[in-house]
Model the fold of this input.
Amino acid sequence: MEKNTSQISLVICTYNRDKYLPGTLATICKQSIDKSKFELLIIDNNSKDNTAVIAEKFIKENPAINTRYFFEANKGLSFARNRGIAEAAAPVIAYIDDDVILPENYLDSLSFFFNEHIDATGAGGKVIPKYEHNLEPVWMNKYLNGFIGKVDHGENVKLFSKAMKYPAGCNMIYKKDILLAAGGFNNALTFRSDDKYIFHAVKKISDKIYYLPQAWLYHYIDEARLEASNFKNLYLKTGNEEKKRVVAASGTWGWIKKGAEFKLKFGVSLLLFILFMIKGEYQKGKYTVLSQWYTLIGFWKKEVHVR
Done:
């Protein structure tokens, strides 16, 4: 068997997204990087749709791309991402979502960066939301960037700081050895917060995690994602998963601190609501308050089921 010499393992974790997966795969075919320098891993997280058929068709039609398909029966994003670690043959693992659009130089940018920055243990690229009808909701504002996964910290490469938070899960890259040293993703986090969890786990070992604007991508935002019910569920689940994350990392004391932080953020959101009202932007103020209220409620709930 020919030895795998890939530099990058591009990992797509997918769950019942056969509507969007083909579009993402199409942009991978157009990558400018030499195809011998990367492998593609499609991790099917117990999908019930046509994901397996789509993967099989892609592999058959694109023999030049080293693509491998895996069915992960344990439902939960962290299970799928951990399967990616286990199966990856390259030293660098790049996680992208099943509904992103990659520019042709995406993988070339990653290859160049990690060759030039030997000290880097991780990176996170810019994420640009692409709305279904190219119309941003009137209530969208910078305080809700996490809802759509938007990441934009300028055009310069720099280390992630506290103010920048952490790489978004739809565009995060780590070296395989550092992921293994950090113990991988937390399987208790089935839907949200696992990108935040792994960032802090890796940072305990090395803080050389860079913001890499050259590795940008579009993240597709469909109308269903913007519905009020989904908005509520996502923030409820965010609060719920954050509770699990801090308890795993810091125990009861971490839970107390995070609860106090969420209460403070809710209070701040009320002040922001007033400021938005003064500017005649009621919807922005309303959704900002709701995001913090649902997060707070989710934090106190025993379990929130979304996926």
